[in-house]
TrEMBL record, chain A:
It comes from Devosia salina. InterPro entries: ABC_transporter_permease, MetI-like, MetI-like_sf. The chain crosses the membrane at residues 12-36, 71-94, 106-124, 154-178, 199-221, 227-252, 264-284. Gene3D superfamilies: MetI-like (1.10.3720.10). This is Sugar ABC transporter permease. Residues 69-282 form the ABC transmembrane type-1 domain. Belongs to the binding-protein-dependent transport system permease family. It is a multi-pass membrane protein. It holds the Pfam family BPD_transp_1.
UniProtKB/TrEMBL annotation, chain B:
It is a multi-pass membrane protein. The chain crosses the membrane at residues 24-44, 87-111, 123-147, 159-179, 200-225, 262-285. The keyword Ligase does not apply. The keyword Glycosyltransferase does not apply. InterPro entries: MetI-like, MetI-like_sf. This is Carbohydrate ABC transporter permease. Keywords: Cell membrane, Membrane, Transmembrane, Transmembrane helix, Transport. Its main location: membrane. It comes from Devosia salina. Belongs to the binding-protein-dependent transport system permease family. SUPFAM superfamilies: MetI-like. Gene3D superfamilies: MetI-like. Residues 88-280 form the ABC transmembrane type-1 domain. It is found in: Cell membrane.
Length: 297, 294
């Protein structure tokens, strides 16, 4: 008994901060939020068990829930692929034989590191104002820009552009992946007179598939969770006409503006399930297009 | 071709290939320069706007102010009921303590996972990896209720204490990856010399892992400095605001007339991040490639 204790002592001692955090701040809250999602709870009075009512109401009657889902899906489906295409394009241009690569890398990565800041969100609001910079540029080319932030048809695009602007981190991961592709493959393809398009689809894409997959999953999860940009640009409410009602913004408002903590917990669980489902789908389809070097297939 | 030796043909081929490579390189540079201009333009525009008079900001594409309004900075500094001295101080306190907490507690956990043997390790490790995937929004509400009941809302404790409990599994993961590369023989030799696990952590693992520690510290700094949701939820009194919350009050209170000062404060708010980025660029970029952090 004493020996067992001594053998494990050091491990558990070093693990203890994490263990406490895990129970108090992770697993405990996860279970609590699952419980709260079946209750009506406004902080002031104790939670009141209502079974599946939150979920039933959400699905049957809550227009804003569906709107939030739609906005978030639209954002994910449009911004993630565009961002990855940009990231890959720039990474390929940066790949080899380019001088000053360090400078480019830093410049392209800079927006990603500042992307979460409120300063950038505020900047974006001004750039896309009707009298703002974007419309002035459009006017230079003779076009007349829309009211980006007031028109629900266009408002989401401001956030999509903001997301694409931050393509730096998938780009860096693509760069590392491109480096790992053996140069001889391209040389062999050239001898077979393969053009750039052929080389891209026959060598680059298949060999980069694990990295593309990694970036896809990571960016998708990030996109589902994005909050500050939409919160600031929509003035905290998802306006205009809920066109910027990201799922997280809706959740925040339900929880902290209207103190519907039970309902917001149910929303959080739906978000968790959606992210889990999308990740699972990505993993499931990946076996058809992602092949790792050390497996035969 | 008759009359040409194979050597001449090979030479011509090689020259043609070099010419094509050069043309491609120029094309790439043009593309890269144009793209990077688009990337930095908004940031430079913000810098310029912070020095322009208010009536010149909107729709002005130029990056050079016709006259420099440095007083935007002093105006912005005092534009809210509480001065930015307080906000910067608050942000500094929260950020510095968070960085310390993250580095210490995450390196403890990483050391246990990477170097120590104990029963149940695989299960705990799997659970730790699982927390990487849980969106913060799921734990946000119960954590809020917990801190509310502890009487911690309207203080910095909800923002700082979790950092001392290794809440950010990303950093644990990053450090585990690094610790595993260090030779095991070091620990074994030290153990034979009678070093305790803590001594090994402190005298061997820590000093050899400075790049990993620095990477974690830098990311921790940037993310805490930029964090908006945490302070938004936990801080209600303006004198407790961190810089991002203060910036937000700019647009929600009387945003309309004070664009120059607002951009001046925006620039100051990202200045620490910019400086960190300039100094530690290499480490940051290596950290991304190594771990896929955001």
């Amino acid at each position: 008994m004493q020996k067992f204790f001594r053998r494990n002592l050091a491990g558990y001692a070093f693990l203890s901060p994490w263990l406490i955090g895990f129970f108090l701040l992770a697993i405990g809250p996860i279970l609590a939020s699952l419980y709260l999602s079946f209750t009506k709870y406004n902080v002031v009075r104790p939670p009141q068990w209502i079974g599946l009512d939150n979920y039933a109401y959400m699905v049957q009657f809550d227009q804003r829930f569906w709107k939030a889902l739609q906005v978030t899906f639209q954002f994910v489906v449009i911004s993630v692929p565009l961002k990855l295409i940009f990231a890959l394009g720039v990474a390929m241009a940066l790949d080899k034989g380019i001088r000053a690569i360090g400078w480019y890398r830093a410049l392209f990565y800079l927006p990603s590191i500042l992307g979460g800041s409120i300063a950038v969100a505020i900047l974006w609001r001004q750039l896309f104002n009707y009298d703002g910079v974007i419309n002035s540029i459009l006017r230079l080319f003779g076009g007349d820009g829309p009211y980006w932030l007031a028109d629900p048809k266009f408002s989401l695009w401001t956030l999509i552009v903001l997301a694409i602007w931050q393509f730096g981190s998938p780009m860096l991961i693509f760069l590392a992946g491109l480096r790992a592709i053996p140069q001889e493959l391209y040389e062999a393809a050239e001898i077979d007179a393969a053009g750039p398009v052929k080389k891209f689809f026959a060598i680059t894409v298949p060999l980069l598939a694990p990295v593309i997959f990694f970036n896809l999953v990571l960016q998708m999860i990030e996109a589902f969770k994005s909050f500050s940009g939409a919160f600031i640009i929509s003035g905290g409410s998802g306006a205009p006409l809920d066109s910027l009602l990201f799922f997280t913004v809706y959740l925040y408002n339900e929880a902290f503006s209207f103190l519907r903590m039970g309902y917001a917990s149910a929303l959080a669980w739906v978000l968790l399930l959606i992210i889990a489902a999308f990740t699972a789908i990505a993993f499931w389809t990946s076996k058809y297009w992602v092949h790792y070097e050390n497996e035969r297939g | 071709m008759p009359g040409q030796s194979t050597a001449e043909i090979a030479h011509a081929y090689r020259q043609e290939k070099a010419r094509r490579a050069r043309r491609l390189a120029i094309l790439k540079h043009v593309f890269l320069i144009l793209t990077s201009l688009v990337m930095v333009y908004p940031l430079l525009w913000m810098l310029a706007a912070s020095l322009k008079p208010d009536n010149q900001i909107f729709g002005d594409l130029g990056l050079w102010p016709s006259e420099f309004h440095w007083e935007n900075y002093s105006k912005g500094w005092n534009a809210l009921p509480v001065s930015f001295t307080t906000f910067f101080w608050n942000s500094t306190v929260v950020t510095v303590l968070s960085v310390v907490g993250n580095v210490v507690s995450c390196s403890f956990a990483a050391y246990a996972f990477a170097r120590l043997e104990f029963s149940g390790k695989t299960i705990w490790f799997a659970l730790m990896m699982m927390t990487l995937m849980i969106p913060y929004h799921v734990v946000l509400i119960p954590q809020y209720i917990l801190f509310l009941n502890l009487g911690w809302v309207d203080s910095y404790l909800p923002l700082i204490v979790p950092k001392f409990l290794a809440g950010d599994a990303f950093f644990i993961f990053l450090m585990i990856q690094f610790f595993r590369q260090l030779p095991r023989e070091l620990d074994e030799a030290a153990m034979i010399d009678g070093c305790s696990p803590f001594k090994i952590y402190w005298a061997i693992i820590m000093p050899l892992s400075l790049p990993a520690m620095a990477t974690a510290a830098i990311f921790s700094f940037i993310w805490t400095w930029e964090d908006f949701l945490g302070p938004l939820v936990y801080l209600n009194d303006m004198k407790d605001y961190t810089v991002p919350l203060a910036l937000r009050s700019f647009i929600s209170t009387d945003g309309v007339s004070q664009y120059g000062p607002m951009f001046a404060m925006s620039i100051l708010s990202i200045l620490p991040i910019l400086l960190f980025f300039l100094v530690f660029q290499r480490l940051i970029i290596r950290g991304i490639a190594m771990s896929g952090l955001k």
